[in-house]
Structures are given as C-alpha cells and as structure tokens.
Amino acid sequence: MNYLSRKLMFSVLLVCSVFSFAQTVTEQFLVKGNCNMCKARIEKAALKAGATTANWTANNQTLTMTLDESKVKCDDILKQIAEVGHDNEKFKASEDAYKNLPPCCLYTRGSDFEKPNDTLEHHSDSDKKTNQIEGVKLTREKEATAISKKEAGLIFNISSKELLKAACCNLSESFETNATVDVSFSNAVTGTKQLKMLGLDQKYTLLTKEQLPEIRGLASPYGLNFIPGKWIGGIQLTKGGSTVVNGYESITGQINTELLKTHDDDKKAETEINLFSDNNGRVEANVTSTSPISDKWNQSVLLHGNGTFGDTDMNDDAFLDRPKGSQLNVAYLLNYNDLQGSGFGSHFGINYLKDERTAGQIGFNKRIPQKDQSLYGVGIDISRFQLWNKTGYVFKGKPYQSLGWMNQLTYHQQDSFFGLRNYFGKETSYYSNLIFESILGNTNNKYKVGASFLYDKYDEDYLLDNYKRTETVPGLFAEYTLTGEKFTLVTGARVDFHNLAGTQFTPRMNFKYDLTPKTIFRISAGRGFRTANIFAESQAYFASNRQIQIINSGGAIYGLKPEIAWNYGVSLQQEFKLFGRKSTVLADFFRTDFQNQVVTDLDESAQKILFYNLEGKSFANSFQTQWDIQPVKNLEFRVAYKYYDVALDYLSGLKKVPFMAKHRGFANLAYSTNKTEKGRFWSFDTTLNLVGKQRLPNTKSNPAEFQIGDYSPSYATLNAQISRNFSEKIRVYLGGENLTGYQQKVAILDAGNPFGNYFDGGMVYAPIMKQNFYVGVDFKF
C-alpha cells in the first residue's frame, strides 16, 4: 500500500470516527423506581437495548445514559425499560410487567407520568451541530408534610420546608403548623412547653434523634428546647404503635428528628447563619455548616446560642411570663458513606449543651440564696453531653441484607430550685442496638432480628430525700414484613429483661391495604411499657406549694410499678383530584388502654400531688380528620378536627383527665409566589388553632378567691408569618404569635403570697403571653 493509499484510508477512518462521535449523545429521562434492585434492572435493560452507559438515581428518578444514535434510538431503550416493568416519560409498563416486580420495587403509579415539579429544562450548546445535550436540570418540589403511602404504619414525613413556615426556634415549635401534635404551655413560672399526641402527654411518645433515644428520663420536661429548629433536617412522625426495633417505650407513637447533613446528591459545602429576635427580649443565633471532606466523608458543624433578657409580665402578677437566661449548644457530625463500594457506612455525633434559666418574681436575684430574700425565684441549670455512633454494612450483591449497630452515651445533670424547694438530678445512660435485616426466599418476605441494651443510672435529690436507682434492660426483638400485591403486613415482638420491672413482652402489628391506588386502609395494634420518672416529669407543679405524696404500691421505682398500655388504631387515607390538583383526606381513630399507669392526682387536694398506681381503668380515645388541598398553584390549605375522650379512675372516681380539650380545630393556609431565576419569592403562612373547654383540677379546698372553675373557657390562637427570599442565599422573615391576643388572666394562684399555702403556678390551660412578634434573617454561603 503506497503513501497516498494509506493517507486516503486514514482520512476516511478519521471522517468516520468524527461522524460516529457526532452521533454520540447524552440523554436524561425520568424513570420510575424505588430501590437498588430497580437501579440494577433499569440500567441492565438500557445497556441491553444498546446504551453505551447508563446510570439511574432513585432520589430524582432520573436515568442518565449515553448512546450512539446511528445504532440505537432513545425510544428503543425506553421501550425496553418499560418492558421490564418501569414506567418512564415516554412508555408505560404493562400491568403484568409491573405486577411481576418484587414488592420492594412496586413504585406508585398514576394515570399520567408526573415529572418532578412538572418541569424538565434542557440546556444545549448552540455552537455544536450535534444532538448532544450538555445538561439537564431537574427540580422536584418537595411536599412540606407528606403522608407516606408505602409504609404500613401511619407516618408523616415533615421536611425543612414545613419548618420554615414558623419561627421553629426549637423542636417544641416545629409542630405549630402540624395538626397531629398539640403544643401547650404546662407551667406559668418556668414557661416550658409540652407535646401531646392522641390525647396523652408527651412522656407516652417515643422521642428520638437519629433513631436514638433522646427526650426521656431527666430530659423530659425541657428536652424539646435541646434541639434547635435550624439543626433539623427532617422529622418522621409515626402515629400509633411504631416498630419494635426502636424499643419498648412507644405507646402513642414516635417522633424522630434527623439532624442537618450533607446530601449524597449535593456534595457542595454550605454554611447558613440565622439571626432571630422578638419584641420581648429573646435573641438567638444559629450557625450550621455542612461540607464534604472527600468522596466518602462529610461533616456538619452545628452551633446555637440564645438568650432571653426582657422582663415580660403581660398579666401584671409580678411574675415573669417566661424565664430569663441563656443556652449554648454545640454539635459535630461526621459521616462516612461507601455503601455502593465496600458496603460500609457510619455516622458519628457529639453534642454538648449548657442551659441556664431564672424565673419567678421580677427583681429576684439568683446570686442571693432564696432564704435571704423575700422574692420568689426559680433557677434551672442543665448540663448535657452526648456521644453516639451508627455503623451499617450492606452485603455485597445483596442490597436487601444489612447489619447495623447503634450506640449512644448520655450524661445529663440538672441543678434547680423552686422557691425553697431544691431538686437535683443526674442521669448516666447508655444505649446499644444491633439489627440484622434480610429476606426469606424473596423480597416479599423481609425480616429484622436483633438485640438491644439500655442502661440508666439515676441519682435524684428532692428536698431532704435522695432517690437512686439503676435500670439495666437487655432485650431481643424480631420483626417480619410480608408484602403482597395490595397489602403490607409488619408484625413484630420483643422481650426485655428489666432488672426492676421484670420481663416484659411487647408485640406490635401494622397492616396496610390498598383498596385502590388512591385509597389506603390501615390498622395497628401494639403494647408498650415505660418506667415513670415522677419528679422530672412533674416539674410543672414544683412551682407551687403542693406537697408531694407517693402512695407505695410495692413497686421497685419510687415504690411504684411500671406503666403498661395497649394502643389500637385504624385509618383511611384517600387521594383525589380537585381543581385538577392533588387533594388528600385522612381520617383516623386510636384508642389507648392502660393496663397499669402511674397516676398524677391533682384533684384529691389543692395542697397535694399524689402519685399512685392505677386501680381501675384508664383510656384515651382520639379521632382526627384532616384535609389537605392545593386549590391553585402555590396555595396550600390544611384543615383538621380532633376529638378526644380521655379519662381514668382517680381515688375520687372516674374523671376526665385535666388540661385536655375534648374538641380542637386546626387550619393552616400557606401561599408562595413564583420563584424568579434569581431565587426571589414571597411566602405567607397563617395557622389558626381552636381549643375547646378543658376540665380543670379540683381547687375547692382553697379559699374562694383562690379557686378556679371546673372547666376553662374555649379560645382561639392565630399565628402568621411573612418571609421574603431575596435570592437563594438571603431570606428575611417576620411573624407574630397568638395574634388573637388570648391570655389566661390568672395563671398563678395567690401570686401575691408565693410562700403561702395556696400558691400554685401549674394551673395553666391557655397562653400566658399576649401577642409576640419576631423577626429573623438567614444567610447562606
């Protein structure tokens, strides 16, 4: 072959190569799926159909592939993907192909393929003469609060979008726009807030952080203030019996808080500064920073500080309506993720908190001993340290099989006084949970087995009495999940060997049946038990001159036996289109029956608090119906009604539980303007709460001027907030709380004589403060 022939052949090959390269394109399409098995199936089908490369991600339901258009067309590949069971934006899988998928792969189907946020933006390079797409930007508008359609239990996923609707300075304020959880003040002196769910106090709800025990034990009264709102990445709220994997203490449900972390699909570093202030002397600063360290490591630095400096007394009783003081809260999170490679992932966390509060009469000096001054004061100093780790391993080639181990160490100390009463408490707690998950034959049959260990050491001083105890609780558990074409059954049980409460058996069951793709029926049943920390959990009544009396029943914990209850629930979830948009109606009914309970009796005498074990019956019936609708674009409306019937047998007979309204109404309206290219938009949010009358404790043993009625009046509160995003980096918000101005006029009985027999700051059924206005700003960089 001569020189000219070789040169001609080389030129032809070069032209062919260029032509071939020009036919190579990169495309992205929306393909429905759920899990790693879906990922493998979709990518295999794409490669088999002729794609050069294929990568599908579950987070945004997106398949990215390269292909040679001279050899294969996109439609051919998408058709092949549909034939293996996965709907995509061009082809829909046949019913048989969809049904043949493993249960874990059964994604939610609709009559139309719904693109995330109904947008698919293509950006091309006009200078190139090829069909290559340089980039595809997919955005998905995340629901603020979504009811999980896949889970057997009734679970609400609350995103950071929901938390932006209100001030959300801490976890207690994160439910102001939520219809399921009731938030109320429990004391007129310390200003603490408590949650209630299914008509029962917060102590019957399992409160976890990163699926680890969080607000329990000595942290019960003030623990909601220990998780700043700006630290929260999301909340999962389970109504009714939750999984046995997380322990035995859940009776009315579980609230799990996830801390802010770097997301796998967004590896850029981000720092946010939040500044907040209200018109009553509260200021707050938050700094959150999430950043990648490498491809597999990322970290979060979380800082929080707040201070309350104003003397707020809106009812003119000479007592502070909320305590003054400060909090410093610091956390560091370190995460390792190599689940796709080695199969290992790990999460480390460390947290330190120092909280100091002073309350009582205006002018009280905390530096002077109470016995040396005439003004009544309350001082609460809390130190808390936590160290935790979660490590998991996913077996290679078996994405359904994993092993996880969680550990947490907590030290909590409270030094406090309420007038002339001292309360000191120390708690050292260690928690460990080992979980193995796999399948029986196929993914229709999943199971979890494991072992847990809980160690609690308490040392409490109240007045002149010391109470010490150590609880050790090794436990074993198993949970089985059966998934059918239209149903999911999760049943589990655990046995715990409590050194003081004896061996406890805890069975639980959740069942979901899809009557239609848009109609979901659920039932649940389960048992839970817990040991009561009567001093820590009753601090709302320490700011009074009630004398504490424990009626010993022969138990090993303060002379009392553990609390045991059964919870049963049923719910119906219906989705439908209204005004061409998604609308959801949810109705549920739950009943809690106590087999044993530690009763806090405020009725026997207005000068006493009695603690004793239940003799008789105690129950809580809860009915709720909720309607979520988006009548027009960017406008969301949520309305709910709740009915509670809660009663127990006191020494004086069967009575309604005090401070629990039989009827409650709720409405939330949220609107936002369209976001501009620079990220500018307005948001408006308002929440109305209607609270019916509540039974009040019996105070007839007091003189007439220090008695309260049998029932409180009904009232309404209104909260509202306006926020302006000036860009993706700057947000300013302005809001008001209790705009109706309703206030409990007499929040403290005999406030003029706080050392007398009739002083009582625990008879709170409504807001203590009138309108409160706040302003805040967020900076991101």
TrEMBL record:
<dbReference type="InterPro" id="IPR036163">
    <property type="entry name" value="HMA_dom_sf"/>
</dbReference>
<feature type="domain" description="TonB-dependent receptor-like beta-barrel">
    <location>
        <begin position="309"/>
        <end position="739"/>
    </location>
</feature>
<dbReference type="InterPro" id="IPR039426">
    <property type="entry name" value="TonB-dep_rcpt-like"/>
</dbReference>
<dbReference type="Pfam" id="PF00593">
    <property type="entry name" value="TonB_dep_Rec_b-barrel"/>
</dbReference>
<keyword id="KW-0998">Cell outer membrane</keyword>
<feature type="signal peptide">
    <location>
        <begin position="1"/>
        <end position="22"/>
    </location>
</feature>
<keyword id="KW-0472">Membrane</keyword>
<keyword id="KW-1134">Transmembrane beta strand</keyword>
<keyword id="KW-0813">Transport</keyword>
<dbReference type="GO" id="GO:0044718">
    <property type="term" value="P:siderophore transmembrane transport"/>
</dbReference>
<keyword id="KW-0675">Receptor</keyword>
<protein>
    <submittedName>
        <fullName>Outer membrane receptor proteins, mostly Fe transport</fullName>
    </submittedName>
</protein>
<dbReference type="InterPro" id="IPR036942">
    <property type="entry name" value="Beta-barrel_TonB_sf"/>
</dbReference>
<dbReference type="GO" id="GO:0015344">
    <property type="term" value="F:siderophore uptake transmembrane transporter activity"/>
</dbReference>
<dbReference type="GO" id="GO:0046872">
    <property type="term" value="F:metal ion binding"/>
</dbReference>
<keyword id="KW-0732">Signal</keyword>
<dbReference type="InterPro" id="IPR000531">
    <property type="entry name" value="Beta-barrel_TonB"/>
</dbReference>
<dbReference type="GO" id="GO:0009279">
    <property type="term" value="C:cell outer membrane"/>
</dbReference>
<keyword id="KW-0798">TonB box</keyword>
<keyword id="KW-0812">Transmembrane</keyword>
